[in-house]
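TASK: fixed-backbone design
INPUT:
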């Protein structure tokens, strides 16, 4: 049986791909799936790096 790859949930219509909105559940779900992290890890990364996707990716990369 072939491996089925999970496709991240789409971003909410008002969201963009440059920042993470931790108050929007669909945004949190999208970014946890896209970045391959838990909600807790995403919240921690945003606390340290801010809401910028680029900065969160950098933080996660340096702390893995």
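OUTPUT:
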């Amino acid at each position: 049986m072939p491996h089925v790859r999970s496709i991240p949930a789409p971003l909410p219509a008002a969201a963009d791909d440059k920042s993470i909105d931790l108050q929007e559940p669909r945004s949190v779900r999208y970014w946890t799936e896209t970045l391959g992290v838990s909600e807790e890890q995403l919240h921690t990364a945003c606390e340290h790096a801010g809401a910028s996707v680029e900065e969160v990716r950098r933080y996660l990369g340096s702390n893995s």
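COMMENT: Residues 25-62 form one domain.
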